[in-house]
Amino acid sequence: MSETALQGTPSVSLASFRFSTAETVKHVVLILGSLIVLLPFYVMVSYSFKSPAEIMQNTGGFFGAQELFRDDYCIKLGRDIADCMVTPIIYNYTTAFEKAPLLRYLVNGLVVTVSIFVIQVLVALPCAYALAKLRFWGREAVFGLVLFCLLIPVHAIALPLYIMLAKVGLTNSYAALVVPWTISVFGIFLMRQFFMTVPDDLIDAARMDGMSEFSIIWNVMLPTAVPALLAFAIFSVVAHWNDYFWPRIVITGDRSLFTPPLGLREFKGDADGDNFGPMMATATIIVAPLIVAFLIAQRRFIEGITLSGMK
Amino acid sequence: MTSISLSAIEKSFGNTPVLNGIDLDITDGEFLTLVGPSGCGKSTLLRILAGLEMPDQGSVTINGLTVNNVRPANRNLAMVFQSYALYPHLSVAQNMMTPLRLRDLSFAGRLPFLGPVVARERYREMSAQVGETARVLKIDHLLDRKPGQLSGGQRQRAALGRAMVRKPVAFLMDEPLSNLDAALRIHMRSELAELHRSLKTTFVYVTHDQAEALTMSDRMAVMMEGQILQLGSPEKIYNDPMDIRVAEFVGAPKINLLPGTLDEAGHVRCGGMVLSRITSNETVGSITLGLRPEHLALCEQGALESLTGQVVHKENLGADIYLHVSVLDAAHRIVLRATPDEGTSVSIGQTVHFKRLCGHAMVFGKDGGRLGLSNAAHESVAEVA
């Protein structure tokens, strides 16, 4: 008995390391895919480190040589050449913050995405609760309308929306950035699907304990729905943090209301040519919060996404 | 005195009638069980009493007040659910505290952070109440745990605790034991009955398990197809069922039913058996004879009025052995209880003889109703049955 067991052990461990064609192909495909996705990020981060000459000539590897170079804008201002010699990495990142009020843009982005998400939750939870757990006449019809709204692309209704906001005089304000997004049909749908899985007994128990329907939503449904809310938070925050289209339409003049993606336009080359270093530095700063947030809450995010059955 | 009464309750879901005119009076402090097969409307009746469903017709009164339009929370009833329905994000203590918070605290006292400061005195009383209830239920060491960290039995106790803390008029229980394993279920049966004796509060208990109903209740109502077929003490229901469906539902193993006939003299005949008791009912014709397994006994071959059959299955429960015997030309199968002494020697396939014990047979008419039998001492067959 003991001999066979001993003989068995190495063969088992060998088997677990055996070469498998299927596994190898799977991993090669996945690695290639991740390379394709990561390449633009690599270029972005790399350019944010390099000097303009290195970017143009495509030299210097990932990090660049970090040799001092002459800042032409500084010379135009009439300063001494010795004062205008800068290290590329420092130049790129300081310019990113100096040339445009990037901090202001980041705060704008934060205010807009957070208020959108909070109001979306305030609207979506009661809606989803009613659609999932309350019996009323026409419930299925209302849910059908919700599903129908999912089919309407934002771009199709952008113009009427803009005209409405303009008539009310809300363009160039935080309200213009937030209000059109406060009712998230997707959020209502997602939360409704989640609430359907919450047992009715739990709600009945809360009713017996003396909770009102609103109290049930905030004290019982909300805490049980945290995973689903996180999934929704990813979609909502990522979409509105990265949104370029809508802010570009409603923020026409006031630069202090720019969101981070609009801030990128500041570096679009005008008369004095493109300024890729600071532009890529700005892009890096803009995506950094999302990447950091993702890394911190990675596991919850994946739970949320698998739960919502999306992607 | 808190008596609850339901009168002429009707309820249907869509076109499906669920309850057809239920009348039920529940007296103060009794343990009343609603028992019936699934889909008979017993849970719906309980939910109507709780206020979670509205009856289409009829009224619910508690303490003489009609509460049809009173919210569940204001009826002062507590409910224990089959799935326990504990709030998953709160600890056991917080779960038990919730009904107290909602009932006894003002709006300010319920505020997070600020509340415990504003109503410090009430909070202290409430946690004392929770601690006391937890001690009674022996869950005081679990108060800090979340429901997810508890076993089924512990969750059951926590759910009971949440119902008990606020001292309700009555406890409503919707199959609270059916998610527990068999051993724990039998244990909790006696604990619940003891709890009822010590609390002296009304319990309304819904179950599909006739054993729970028989062991725990003061009175039980057997429901089927939206009606209460019979309401009475467990002894009465078991020994004196008024309907063939009640007789079939209550008792395990099931009552044996044999076809028989009723002759002009009022005697019931089945196979070779003739009952000595007669029925006053004049309808002559086919009837059904009901015999419980414990009212049959093995006997010698050729004994008077015995039945003969072949053993097809044998169930050994230790204290009793149940023999399944096919009788009347293998058309019917009868279960009879034998003592281990008699039963062990019997093997499957063997032919056995058995007879009924006198005075226990029940006779049901064609419509399923019970036919009354009375002793007719002057009859010549009196000695036989």
Structural notes for this entry:
The complex is a heterodimer of chains A (311) and B (385). Chain A has two domains: 2-98, no CATH class; 100-308, Orthogonal Bundle (MetI-like fold). Chain A has 17 helices and two strands. Chain A has helices spanning 2-16, 21-47, 52-57, 72-76, 88-99, 102-133, 139-150, 158-168, 174-178, 185-196, 200-209, 213-224, 226-241, 245-250, 260-263, 276-296, 298-308; strands spanning 69-70, 85-86. In chain A, helix 11 (200-209) packs across helix 12. The longest helix of chain A has 32 residues, at 102-133. Chain A is globular. Chain B has 385 residues and is of the alpha+beta class. Chain B folds into two domains: 4-239, Rossmann fold; 254-383, OB fold (Dihydrolipoamide Acetyltransferase, E2P) (Beta Barrel), CATH 2.40.50. Helices cover 26% and strands 32% of the residues of chain B. In chain B, the strands form five sheets. In chain B, strands 6-7-8-3-9-10 form a six-stranded mixed beta sheet, sandwiched between helices. Chain B has a six-stranded antiparallel beta sheet with strand order 13-12-11-15-21-22. In chain B, strand 1 (4-13) and strand 2 form a beta hairpin. The radius of gyration of chain B is 26 Å and the shape is elongated. Mean pLDDT of chain B is 86; it is low at 377-385.
